[in-house]
Every structure is written in structure tokens, then in C-alpha cells.
Design goal:
Largest interface: A-B, 59 and 65 residues
Number of strands of chain B: 0
Largest sheet of chain B: none
Chains: A mainly alpha (about 300), B mainly alpha (about 325), C alpha+beta (about 525)
Largest sheet of chain C: 12 strands, mixed
Radius of gyration of chain C: 26 Å
Mean pLDDT of chain B: 82
Low-confidence stretches of chain C: 17-26
Number of helices of chain B: 15
Strand content of chain C: 15-25%
Oligomer: heterotrimer
Low-confidence stretches of chain B: none
Radius of gyration of chain B: 24 Å
Order of helices and strands of chain B: HHHHHHHHHHHHHHH
Shape of chain B: globular
Strand content of chain B: under 5%
Mean pLDDT of chain C: 92
Number of helices of chain C: 16
Structural class of chain B: mainly alpha
Number of strands of chain C: 20
Chain lengths: ~300, ~325, ~525
């Protein structure tokens, strides 16, 4: 290995500009971005896009199958739920809540997790020991149990839910970021950069971060789906969001009792989650390809 | 040198366990709700005398500091107290419930790894092929559909329609198997009860597959992503240029390195599996820890929650140790 | 690039605003939070819809049960969907805890001296006609003062395989497997709607699920028909010597699963274990309050036991149904803890194997004395064994019944009833439930300290439509919080009709804007 030339990733301000442009040319990133944009657009324009009022129950038309099935109710493309509310309209409105839950919880987990992970992996020693022990302490509480505890203590509410999700969520990002930083710091190019007299901050920001951030982003795209699903799990246990905020996760949970007879109630919101997670992952994949310096040098 | 590092690492578990004990104690008492009310059936149905008698039984009439000391001193001796609801030693309850959970988690992990690693590697090697797309698409269903949805669908299809597997439970009631270790598979082998072994396996398949689905998806993604990265590394290119056979490079050199992030993720996820599978346990009527703990939280059964969280903490600490050791083995460049 | 970022920021901001958009605030609008547990969420949302139609701002909140009750008891909440079970078929354990001033179960903080006195007269009186009059009066007052939005009771819906013969669900949720026959095979499996039963010790639980299992292992002095009638079981005869003294003669030839004959000593031991502090291995039984004013239990002869009460207690026999006789010698030999691991009773089935949180296997007790003569068939059970499986997920219970793994399942959700009725191998069995469901209002705080507002709400909810749709008719409207199955129910008392016009008028009188 000693004879291998060490590739020092190019530094420079060109990166920010280049990233967006390259991302725009990345096929899967574009597909993902379009799907997310459509979902976000529907969510923002929900009052215009939804054919029905998502909160208007019509008890006599409850659990109607999708319009295209035998016995389906006209106009309800994805059927109605246990209170006769239009599922398609609720999915559109639910996008508001679910996107925000996923986004807020992911950002509130990723940012602190990444920063602390970088710090622990780079400075090592006491910083690493303290942070790692604290992370282990939190990891010791299983996520769902922890979230149940937080929700039971705080009561129902949007930000209470996000808190319950993110309070422990950062640990995973921390662990991965720390591991990657440790691994990157021992690489030749970091040594080379040090030898060239680069400062710690510069090495972290310009060399290590770009080389490991993709793992966090990939994880982030995975976690975002996980948070949305976790909201479903909390709803399953009866501790989700207030009903005024239809969220995909709680919609899936709502339909669980009638899964055997009215499968559409939970399946379609579930598919909405699948599409969202898929799209976010495609973006994540594109980001990784674009940000990964070794790929770029190819 | 490694022994010293290891010893220091082991010693750090003590403050962690202490911290966990204090936190769980405080958090449980912050939850609104009176455990004695819950035990008495419905809050408000009890006489004051009843309430007082039970508070005394559970030491809930003592100052909080004393309760905490009692818990920590007990835990240090391995005595986790007595369940409020079931009036049995918490330790015995955990010992009973743990094997069911571990058996399920291990089966799920095995299923997940057995599928995910080859899929991840192949997806990376044949990046952007139909195989890659199909595998990754399937992975999203695994991650994104809540476990209870997958579980109920699996029961409907494989248990009710096709009749291949039982809907729920760990063993059929016709099969009598005296618990020695509590692991159905181990016990049935020990007792040479092959019917029980087959029955136990049949019961294990659906819950393990559903529980493993999320992990499978995650591992396949991480494996693919880190494999892609490793394949672009200099030394792989070098090895390839030295004329090593492609397959050998992939399976021997590249995969070993790509396993590092995977090990991290599996280590973390195993903890999640051990703690967070109460939904699968509920859907499949699986008598494990997850259900026990969630029920205990709802019942404000402080000793059970405290004991279970201490057990999780212990598992985590040990799993983390194992992960660190794996790092050393897999990548000698990392010093602890 | 910058424009993209800006666009993203705007999108997030709009999303955020969409969630917190105010619903149009007005002057003196009646606005409150309607609290519920998850299982009644659809009902709560339908009720909120009714109220919104009148211009009442109603926000449904879903809580975890124990947190919600704690907050209710602290007086922090306004209106809450709650339920309360009655085991004694009497207002003694229903209206009394719910409406007595200052009671711990009085979540509505309702307070009326006259009602307090009438409830005491009802539960301690010895003349049934006068007790009934007292309860009729209570219903009248409750209706007028409307401390709750009165609700309904449900049918308990269970599922059974068509192979199961001679089984009828009981109103007190006992599953009497002694009488059951199976067309094929000799073992019945029951899918229980619970995570776990609490214990095998009849002195150490308060929940119905545990009792459902234990009453197949243990018998009591008396038991109940599938409805509300109390009949003799282990007792051959009962005499009431005075309003406060009951004497039971035990049935001869009854043996425990241990082989010991049951005597008066076992009966005395059973009740002393519950009455005395710390009598169960140093711990106290949570069941004492259920025995009301029972003061002491004495052995009068080898097979005669006398119960003495501190004051008259008209529901004493209904209460006794829930107390199972345990073997004194066995418990004193092996200890309370070992007894709870390996229970021994006098019931039709004896414990074979199993755990409280997975499955419990019982086998037929061949020396069974036969059971209550008034509940034929009499004699050892026809089934070779029974299995109780803990299956907390309703869809799984239904699937297991359809797959033939279990023969009886508890609590079929109403929306799955059709699924079982369509299947020729399964059927739904319903019985009248003994739980009152309603909306309790916090009478101590505005806005519900105003009786007009409370009455308006009672007129504003279209219960008939909600019960028909959400519970598919498996629920029946109640005029107040008295159950038709309980003593002292006044069938002439009409429920509040759905009358939005009157609701509007009352709200206006109370000074609120209406739509």
C-alpha cells in the first residue's frame, strides 16, 4: 500500500455551486426530488388539491371500498375510513404532518448527532469518552419505550412527538459519524493535510466531513422513514398525534382493526410512506454520489 | 495493552448503569398516574385503606430518596424488586420473558443477515442493474410499512389463507415442553423432542420474518452503500490490478471492509430489536420483553420497567463492547 | 441556488402554518378539549363533528389511559370519554363511586347532598322497594342536572367456532368451560384479549381477565348464571340469619386438586387472607374493598361458615361470586408464592402448565363434585382440557379463530363481526355488557359548571347515528349512568333526544354564540 498515491480531495469553494448542478443532472436524485416536490406541493396546496374535507365524517358512508372496486363509493378513489372520511383527501392533508414530523425529527437528530460525532471522532480522548458514554446511556433505553415514556409524560401534541422521536434519534447519527471520523482520521490524506499545515477545523470541515457525510445522509434518509413509521407505532399504542392532524402513520394505525375487512384504510397511507421514503432515499443516493469525492475523480 | 483497554472499557459500564438506574427511576415517577390506582382495577374504585395498605407493600409511602436507594442497592445485589401488578420478583419475570425475545431477535437477525448481505453486495457489484433496483425497492417496503401492517398481512396470507404457519404463539398447546433454558429451540433439542422443535420453528418463522424485515432493509442498504465505497478504494483497485481474481477481491477483501458500518448498524439494531419489538410481540401473541415492559409502563409498574431497562442497559453495554472489538478485528488501523 | 433555498424555506413555512392555522376565533365561543383514549377515538371525532355543527369548538385529544385519569383526577381536564364497569349488577359499584361528593371515582366532581344521601340509602338499605325508590330518584336528579353527557352500554361480542356447543357468553365475562362440549376433539382453546393475566392467586388481582381464567380452576361459594342471578356453587345451602349475618353450609364431598377435602377451615382461610393486612406472604390483598362491610368469617361447624357484616350490605351475595375458595393446608405448606406458581382449586379444571403471559393449559379434574346444580350439566367437565392463549391483537384473534387454532375468542371488534358471520365455521355470540360509557364533564370548572351548557351538550350529540355507525348497533343508549342489567334501573326514564335546536337555545341562554 505504501506505493499507492494518496489522492487529496480537491478543496475549494466550487463545491457548493457544483453540487446543486450535478445533483440536477443525477437521474435518481431528480426522480426523488420530483416525488418529494409533488408530495410537498400537494401538502401545501391541500385545500385546493383535496376533493373532500379531510375532517368531514359521513357516518353512513364509512369503510367504503375504493371507487374502482366492487361496491366502491363514487368519488372516493382510495375509499373511506371508519368515519366515512375520504382517504385520498386525508393522505393529502396528512402529508403536511408526516413530512414535518419526518423532517423535524431527522434534522433535530442529524445535526447534533453529526457535530458531536465529528467532535468525538476527531478530538478523541476525554471528549470522545464523555460523549460516547452519554450516548450509550441514552442507547440503553429502547427507542419505543423511551418515546412512550416521553409521550405519556408530556401528553399528546405535535412538538411533544417530535421531541420524543429526536431526543434519542441523534445517538445513532453520533455513533455512525464517530466511527467514520475515526476511520477517516487515520487515512493517509488526513495525515498529508496535517503535514501541509492545515488546521484542525479545516481538516474537519474540508477533508473529513465531505468524506463521511454521505453515510449520515444515507442514514438520515433511512431514519426519516423510520420516524414516520415510529409515529405509526406510537399511534398503534394510542399515543400519536391529535386527530385534528391526520398523519400517515396514525392513519395506518387507525386501519389496523379493520385490516381483515377494509384493507384500504391502512394500506394506502402506508404506501404513501413507502413512496416518501423511497423518494427521500433516491435524493440521498444522488447526494452521496455527488458529494463523494472519490466518485467524482472517476 | 488490549487487556488494559478492555478492563477500562468494562469499568466504564458502572457509571453508565448507575446513570441509567437514576434516569429510569426519575422518568417513571414523572409519569402521571398512581400505580396503586391501576392495580385496584379502576382508579377511584378503592377505599383509602386499600390504597394505604398497598402503598406500604410497595414502599411507595417512603421518601423518594429512600425508594431510589432501595432500588439501586437492590439492583447492585441482583435484586430488582417485586412487580406491583403480578407480585412476583421482577428478576424471575425478566428471566422468563427474555428467552422469547432473544430467540425472536436472533432469528430475525439471522434471516435479515442471510438475505441482506448477499443482496447488498450483489446490488453494489451490479449497481443500477434490475437486480439492484428490485432489491432496493423491496427494501423500502420493509422499512416503511409499519410492523403491524406487515404482521397482519403475513398472518392473513400465510396462516389463514395458505395455512403454512400458525397465526401466533410460541408453541402449540398439544406440544408440552418443560422450560429449562426458556429457549424453545434449545429446550426441544435438549429434550430430544423433535416434534416440539419443528413446532417451535413453525411458530418462529412469521414473527421473525416480519421483525427482520426492517433490519433486512437497513442492512442491505448499508451493505450496498459501503460496498460501493470500498470497491472504489485504492487498495481494491490495486488488488485488482495485481491480477487477483475479481470474485476473490469482492468477497474476501472488499466485503470484509464493507462489513464495518454494517456491524455498527447491526449492533445498534440488535438493541432496537431486543427493546422495540413489542408491536410484533403483540401481533403474534409472543410472550416477550417488549410486551411486558410496555404493559408495565401503562400500569406504572415501576419495578418491572426499572428492571427491564437495567437489563437493556446491560445488553447495550455488552453489545457495544462487542462492536468495538469487531472494529479492531475488521480494521486494524483503528485503535480503541 | 439561492432561489431554490428560499423556495424550500417558504415551503416549510407554509407547511408549518397549515398545522397551526387558527380555526377562526370568535367572541364567547364555547371551546373545549374532548379527551379520549385511543380505542374511542372514532366516536370522539364523530361527537366533535356534532358539536362543531353547533359552533362549539371541540378539539379531540387522544391520551394514554393512566395519564389521562391522573390528569382528570387532578381537575385539569374539561370533558373526557370515560367508562366504568360494574361487577355487582347494582349501583353500589357504579353510581355510588361515580357521583358521591368527593369520591375518588367521581371524575365529574359532581356534588349534590341529596344524591349522596340517596345513594347511601340505596346501598345500605334492607328494604328493596325503598332502595329502588332511592335509585329512581337519583336517576331523575342526574338526568336533570346532567353532570355527564350520558352515553351508552355495549354488547360484548365474542367469537366461537361452530364446533363449540353449549357455550354462552356471560354478562360478568366469566367463560364457563365446564358446561362446554366440543363436536370434535376434547380441548378448547380460548383467545384472550389481554397481554397477560395478573396471577394465579385468587386473592391478588382486580381485573376481569384474570378472573375469567381463575374461575375455571377455582369455584366459589356461589356463582352466577350467564346473566345476573346468583346461584349456589360450593355452598349447599345459605341462610340469612339477620340483615348482617349469613350462614353457608358447604357441599359435602368436595375435594381440591390436591386431593384434600374442602372444609369450613378453607373458607375461613380464604377470606382471612383477603381481609387481614399482610396475610398473603407478607403482602395485602387488593380485593378487600370488594367485600364491603364484611367484618369477620367464622367456622361454626365442620362444614358451616358464618359471615358477619358491620352493616347491611344488600349486594353481598353478588360480591361473593367473585371470591374463589383456596386450599388452606396446601398454601400453608408450600407458601403463597409457590401456590401462585402452581394453583390448586376445587374447579372443573386443574392447572397443568403455562405462564400468565403466553398460554395456560388446564386439564379436566376427574374428581370434580359437579358444579352448581342450577347450572346443568352437572358432573366432571366434558372437555379433556382447556387452553387460554393471550392474544392482545384483535386481528390475530379473529385470524386464529378462522384458522381453527382457537375455538372461542374474546372481544371481536364490531367491524370484524361480518368477517366471522360470513365464515360458516365461526359465529359471533353477543351478551349485554356491564360497562357504562359516556362523556364526563368537569362540573367544578367553567364552562361545565353551568347546567345549561351541560344539558345543551346532551341535546347536541346524535348518539343514535353514532352508535349505529361506529358500533354497528352493538351499543344501546342510556338515559343516565344506570345500567338496565343493574338493580334500581328505571326503564321509564327517557334519554336526552338529539335536538340541535334546543341545544342552540340553551347555549344562547348560557351566553354563547352558536351557528
Amino acid at each position: 500500500m505504501g506505493t499507492v498515491t494518496v489522492a487529496i480531495p480537491p478543496l475549494g469553494a466550487r463545491r457548493g455551486v457544483g453540487t446543486a448542478a450535478r445533483l440536477a443532472r443525477h437521474p435518481s436524485a431528480v426522480v426523488g426530488a420530483v416525488v418529494v416536490a409533488v408530495m410537498a406541493g400537494l401538502a401545501v396546496l391541500a385545500p385546493l388539491a383535496a376533493p373532500f374535507d379531510p375532517g368531514a365524517s359521513r357516518l353512513e358512508g364509512r369503510l367504503a371500498p375504493p371507487a374502482w372496486l366492487a361496491g366502491g363509493a363514487a368519488g372516493h378513489w382510495l375509499g373511506t375510513d371508519g368515519l366515512g372520511r375520504d382517504i385520498w383527501s386525508r393522505i393529502i392533508y396528512g402529508g403536511r404532518v408526516s413530512l414535518l414530523v419526518g423532517l423535524a425529527a431527522t434534522v433535530l437528530s442529524l445535526v447534533p448527532g453529526l457535530i458531536l460525532g465529528l467532535a468525538a471522532g476527531f478530538f478523541r480522548g476525554a471528549t470522545d469518552a464523555a460523549l460516547s458514554r452519554f450516548a450509550e446511556l441514552l442507547m440503553a433505553f429502547p427507542h419505543l419505550i423511551f418515546a412512550i415514556g416521553v409521550m405519556a409524560a408530556l401528553g399528546p401534541g405535535f412538538w411533544n412527538l417530535v421531541m420524543a422521536l429526536a431526543f434519542k434519534g441523534w445517538v445513532e447519527f453520533f455513533r455512525v459519524a464517530r466511527g467514520d471520523t475515526l476511520s477517516q482520521s487515520s487515512r493517509e490524506y488526513v495525515g498529508a493535510a496535517r503535514a501541509l499545515g492545515a488546521s484542525g477545523a479545516r481538516i474537519l470541515g474540508r477533508h473529513i466531513l465531505p468524506n463521511m457525510i454521505h453515510t449520515s445522509l444515507v442514514l438520515g434518509t433511512l431514519r426519516m422513514g423510520h420516524f414516520i413509521v415510529l409515529e405509526a407505532s406510537l399511534s398503534f399504542l394510542g399515543m400519536g398525534l391529535p386527530p385534528r392532524l391526520p398523519a400517515w402513520g396514525s392513519m395506518v394505525a387507525d386501519g389496523r382493526e379493520v385490516m381483515l375487512t377494509a384493507w384500504w384504510v391502512s394500506t394506502f397511507p402506508g404506501l404513501a410512506i413507502v413512496f416518501l421514503v423511497l423518494a427521500v432515499n433516491l435524493i440521498g443516493e444522488g447526494l452521496r454520489d455527488v458529494l463523494d469525492p472519490r466518485l467524482r475523480s472517476e | 495493552m488490549r487487556a488494559v483497554v478492555l478492563a477500562r472499557r468494562v469499568l466504564t459500564t458502572i457509571p453508565i448503569m448507575f446513570g441509567v438506574a437514576v434516569i429510569v427511576f426519575v422518568v417513571m415517577r414523572m409519569l402521571p398516574g398512581d400505580p396503586v390506582d391501576v392495580i385496584l382495577g379502576q382508579a377511584g374504585a378503592a377505599s383509602q385503606q386499600d390504597l394505604d395498605r398497598l402503598r406500604q407493600d410497595f414502599y411507595l409511602d417512603r421518601p423518594l430518596g429512600e425508594q431510589l436507594l432501595r432500588f439501586i442497592a437492590g439492583a447492585a445485589r441482583g435484586d430488582l424488586g417485586t412487580s406491583f401488578a403480578r407480585r412476583r420478583p421482577v428478576f424471575a419475570m425478566l428471566v422468563e420473558a427474555l428467552p422469547a425475545t432473544v430467540e425472536l431477535a436472533l432469528a430475525a437477525t439471522l434471516i435479515a443477515l442471510a438475505v441482506a448481505i448477499p443482496v447488498g453486495v450483489l446490488s453494489a457489484v451490479y449497481q443500477r442493474s434490475w437486480l439492484d433496483r428490485l432489491a432496493m425497492g423491496g427494501a423500502f417496503l420493509g422499512i416503511s410499512m409499519p410492523a403491524f401492517w406487515l404482521g397482519i398481512v403475513a398472518i392473513m396470507v400465510f396462516a389463514v389463507r395458505l395455512g403454512w404457519f400458525p397465526t401466533s404463539g410460541r408453541l402449540s398447546h398439544e406440544v408440552l415442553l418443560a422450560p429449562t433454558t426458556g429457549f424453545v429451540l434449545v429446550d426441544s433439542v435438549l429434550a430430544r423432542n423433535w416434534a416440539a422443535l419443528a413446532d417451535g420453528l413453525r411458530h418462529l418463522v412469521l414473527p421473525a420474518a416480519v421483525l427482520g424485515a426492517g433490519l433486512l432493509a437497513i442492512v442491505a442498504r448499508v451493505m450496498r452503500s459501503s460496498m460501493l465505497e470500498v470497491l472504489r478504494e485504492q487498495y481494491v483497485t490495486t488488488a485488482r490490478s495485481k491480477g487477483l481474481a475479481g470474485r476473490l477481491v469482492i468477497w474476501r477483501h472488499a466485503m470484509r471492509n464493507a462489513l464495518i458500518p454494517t456491524v455498527t448498524v447491526v449492533g445498534l439494531q440488535l438493541g432496537v430489536l431486543l427493546g422495540g419489538n413489542m408491536i410484533v410481540e403483540t401481533v403474534f401473541g409472543w410472550p416477550g420483553m417488549g410486551r411486558l415492559v410496555v404493559e408495565a409502563i401503562f400500569n406504572r409498574d415501576y419495578p418491572v420497567v426499572q428492571g427491564a431497562v437495567m437489563l437493556y442497559a446491560m445488553t447495550f453495554v455488552l453489545a457495544n463492547l462487542a462492536v468495538d472489538l469487531c472494529y479492531i478485528y475488521l480494521d486494524p488501523r483503528i485503535a480503541l | 441556488m439561492h432561489r431554490q433555498r428560499l423556495a424550500a424555506a417558504v415551503a416549510v413555512a407554509v407547511l408549518a402554518l397549515g398545522i397551526w392555522a387558527p380555526a377562526g376565533a370568535q367572541e364567547r365561543t364555547l371551546a373545549f378539549a374532548l379527551d379520549t383514549e385511543a380505542f374511542r377515538r372514532p366516536e370522539a371525532e364523530a361527537i366533535a363533528d356534532n358539536l362543531r355543527a353547533l359552533g362549539i369548538q371541540t378539539e379531540v385529544r387522544v391520551w394514554e389511559r393512566t395519564s389521562l385519569i391522573a390528569r382528570i383526577q387532578a381537575g385539569e381536564r374539561q370533558a373526557y370519554l370515560t367508562d366504568w364497569g360494574s361487577a355487582f349488577f347494582d349501583p353500589y359499584d357504579l353510581a355510588e363511586p361515580k357521583f358521591t361528593t368527593g369520591g375518588r371515582g367521581n371524575f365529574s366532581f359532581y356534588s349534590n347532598k341529596e344524591v349522596d344521601d340517596l345513594l347511601v340509602a340505596g346501598s345500605t338499605g334492607t328494604d328493596n322497594a325503598r332502595r329502588r325508590d332511592a335509585y329512581f330518584k337519583v336517576q331523575e336528579i342526574l338526568f336533570r342536572e346532567a353532570p355527564w353527557v350520558f352515553g351508552y352500554f355495549r354488547q360484548d361480542t365474542h367469537g366461537a367456532s361452530t364446533l363449540v356447543e353449549n357455550w354462552e357468553p356471560a354478562m360478568d365475562s366469566r367463560i364457563n368451560l365446564h358446561d362446554v362440549r366440543l363436536a370434535r376433539g376434547g380441548v378448547v382453546a380460548v383467545g384472550m384479549n389481554t397481554n397477560a393475566i395478573v396471577t394465579f392467586d385468587p386473592a391478588m388481582f382486580r381485573d376481569r381477565k384474570t378472573e375469567t381464567v381463575l374461575r375455571n380452576i377455582f369455584d366459589g361459594l356461589v356463582t352466577r348464571t350467564t346473566r345476573d342471578k346468583v346461584v349456589l356453587e360450593l355452598a349447599a345451602a345459605m341462610r340469612q340469619l339477620s340483615p348482617t349475618v349469613y350462614e353457608f353450609t358447604l357441599r359435602p364431598g368436595v375435594v381440591f386438586h390436591t386431593g384434600d377435602a374442602m372444609t369450613a377451615d378453607d373458607v375461613v382461610f380464604t377470606f382471612e387472607r383477603i381481609l387481614k393486612e399482610g396475610a398473603v406472604g407478607g403482602q395485602s390483598s387488593p380485593r378487600k374493598a370488594l367485600l364491603g362491610p364484611l367484618d369477620r368469617v367464622e367456622r361454626v361447624g365442620d362444614n358451616v361458615v358464618r359471615f358477619t357484616l358491620a352493616r347491611p350490605f344488600p349486594v353481598f351475595l353478588q360480591a361473593l361470586v367473585h371470591f374463589q375458595i383456596v386450599p388452606r393446608r396446601y398454601i400453608q405448606t408450600v407458601g403463597d408464592r409457590a401456590f401462585a406458581e402452581r394453583p390448586m382449586g376445587t374447579g372443573p379444571f386443574k392447572y397443568l402448565a403455562g405462564r400468565v403471559d403466553s398460554q395456560i393449559v388446564l386439564e379436566r379434574f376427574e374428581q370434580y363434585y359437579g358444579g352448581a346444580p342450577e347450572l346443568p350439566p352437572v358432573g366432571p367437565a366434558s372437555l379433556r382440557g382447556v387452553v387460554f392463549r393471550m392474544m392482545p391483537e384483535p386481528a390475530t384473534r379473529v385470524a386464529a379463530l378462522k384458522a381453527g387454532e382457537v375455538h372461542i375468542i374474546e372481544d371481536v371488534p364490531v367491524d370484524l363481526i361480518g368477517e366471522l358471520e360470513r365464515d360458516p365455521r365461526t359465529a359471533v355470540r353477543a351478551t349485554q355488557g356491564t360497562r357504562v360509557f359516556g362523556i364526563e364533564l368537569n362540573n367544578a370548572r367553567p364552562p361545565f359548571n353551568d347546567v345549561k351548557v351541560r344539558q345543551a351538550l346532551n341535546y347536541a350529540v346524535n348518539w343514535e347515528a353514532i352508535l349505529r355507525a361506529v358500533y354497528r348497533g352493538y351499543a344501546t343508549r342510556l338515559s343516565t349512568a344506570f345500567l338496565p342489567s343493574g338493580f334500581g334501573y328505571n326503564p321509564r326514564q327517557q334519554a336526552y333526544p338529539y335536538d340541535p335546536a334546543r341545544a342552540r337555545a340553551l347555549l344562547r341562554e348560557a351566553g354563547y354564540a352558536v351557528r
